[in-house]
Amino acid sequence: MHPMVKPALRRGWRDLNTVQFGMAPAHAMVLGPMDTATGSFLDLLDGTRGMPLLRKEGREMGLPDGHVDALVERLARSGLLDDTTGGGPAADALREKKEVLDRLRPDLASLSLVAPAPGAAIERLAARRSLHVQVRGAGRVGVVLAALLAGAGVGEVEVRDVGCVEPWDVAPGGLPVESIGERRAEAARRAVRRAAPDRPPRTSSKAKEKEKEREKVREKGAEEVRGLSLVILTPRDGVAVHAPDPAAAESLIASGTPHLYAGVVEGTGVVGPLVLPGDTSCAGCLDQGRVDRDPTWPRLVAQWRSGQQRRVSACDLTLAAGVAGVAAGHALAFLDGVLPSSAGARWEASVPGFDWHARPVWSHPACPCGAAERAKGERASDDGEPHETMAGQQSYAARLSGTWRAHV
User: Fold this and answer.
1) 75-86 pLDDT, tens digit each
2) Quick check: helix, strand or coil at residue 385?
3) How far apart are CA 59 and CA 288, in angstroms?
4) Residue 405's pLDDT is what?
5) Cβ distance 274 to 343 under 8 Å?
6) Using the 8-state DSSP alphabet, how is residue 62 labeled?
């Protein structure tokens, strides 16, 4: 072990015996009492020394036997310590790619704040390289979102869409102006490739044949979901954002593939729900709940879906960028093994206020996804009394994260 005080947290002394790690309240921590010699020893915890050398230097500074080990254990227990040699074989392989790791160092520092154990941050970052995410929709939201995931180290990010790039699809960080007139899927693939810190290895002949088979599947309109860690639906059509068609996700529900909704409808950005099939509410639950509240909902949706699109849909550039960023953050949290707040909820923000707020999406007993039955059993086992509270659903969802991390 080569211990290092996490560099993401700035250090400052509140008084002669109390040290504060971090500035922002979300991750700041205060430790004390700490004497002057121990405070000076903290500078040696920079990841360049192993424990034997640290013990030796500690003795030279006058620290008593066992003090260094106790300090290291205390810092590790507080989530303030990293290990520059930890994380396992995948992390070692990432360290060997210095140029790639240098691109990802800000992400690694951020992960160290939420992955408390020494070496856990680079372990999560390295694990991203083996994941396969599919983004369905190559508009202002979808391509930027896909580029963000690739740039954050997700190994394979695939974007699916039809048609050719229009001038209004262009966005900073997404499709460039040079791609106008090209096939959306191909242009999105290049945008993702440009954003990735690591170029994928050369494709073998077998892999090329497999890719050709996958292309045939796409051309036939079939949906291949095997091996996907997550599917993100980012339709360019505002109706599909506001009222996602449950039929479009039937294969995802049937295969147990986690999927997340995101997009812009008129002047409102939407992220969620994140659907864990059979466990959390889905597009069908959202639709059924709306019917319960508004009997005219099916009539409205039918008109919206059947109407001819005669003009370019509203999609504020900054709102689209915000949606892409929030959705990418929720996706990465899930892929890293933490269940985000979009599970069982839709986060929404509208121009010009950009005030993000969550709207719960309750699992519905009439939806065939089975989430309501699962939630009912969970609630009954909790206290014997069925109840519907957002806190209860979030508590239940939190207990799912380990299961779904294993699935990923």
Assistant:
1) 999 999 999 999
2) coil
3) 68
4) 36
5) yes
6) T
Residue 255's Cβ-count burial label (10 Å; 0-12, 13-18, 19+) is middle
Distances in Å between the Cα of 128 and the Cα atoms of 70, 257, 290, 398 are 33, 17, 36, 21
93 residue type, one letter: A
| DSSP β-ladder status, 259-265 and 230-233 | parallel
Residue 227's alpha-carbon distances to 36, 52, 218, 252, 273, in angstroms, are: 54, 44, 16, 12, 21
Q: How many residues are recorded in the chain?
A: 408
Q: Which residues does 245 contact at the CB level (< 8 Å), separation at least 6?
A: 283, 305
- Beginning with the edge strand found earlier in the chain, give each strand of the sheet holding 29-31 in spatial order: 11-15, 18-21, 29-31
Integer Cα distance of 168 and 359 in angstroms:
29
In the chain, how long is the greatest CA-to-CA distance?
80
Q: Helix, strand or coil for residue 248? A: helix
Q: Which residue is associated with the tokens 């500690």? A: 58
Residue with tokens 């920079």: 46
**What is the sign of the dihedral through the CA atoms of 73, 75, 79 and 82?**
negative
* Alpha carbons within 13 A on the beta-carbon side of 327: 36
Residue with tokens 């392989």: 93
Is 251:225 a contact under the CB 8 Å cutoff?
Answer: yes
Residue type for 166, please?
A: E
Cβ neighbours around 204 below 10 Å, total: 9
Domains and CATH numbers, the chain: 3-90 (3.90.930), 129-407 (3.40.50.720)
Per-residue pLDDT reduced to its tens digit, 237-295: 999 999 999 999 999 999 999 999 999 999 999 999 999 999 999 999 999 999 999 99
CA-to-CA distance for 322 and 354, rounded, in angstroms?
Answer: 9
Using left for φ > 0, alpha for ψ between -120 and 50, and beta otherwise, residue 263 falls in left
Kindly state the tokens that stand for 7: 């560099």
Residue 384's pLDDT is 46
CA pair distance 319, 349, nearest whole angstrom: 8
CA 14 to chain centre: 35
Provide the β-strand partners of residue 345: 360
CB atoms within 10 A of CB 377: 10
Query: Contact at 8 Å (CB) between 91 and 120?
Result: no
Determine the Cα–Cα distance for residues 158 and 232; give it in Å rounded to an integer. Answer: 10
Q: How many CA atoms lie within 13 A of 154 on its CB side?
A: 28
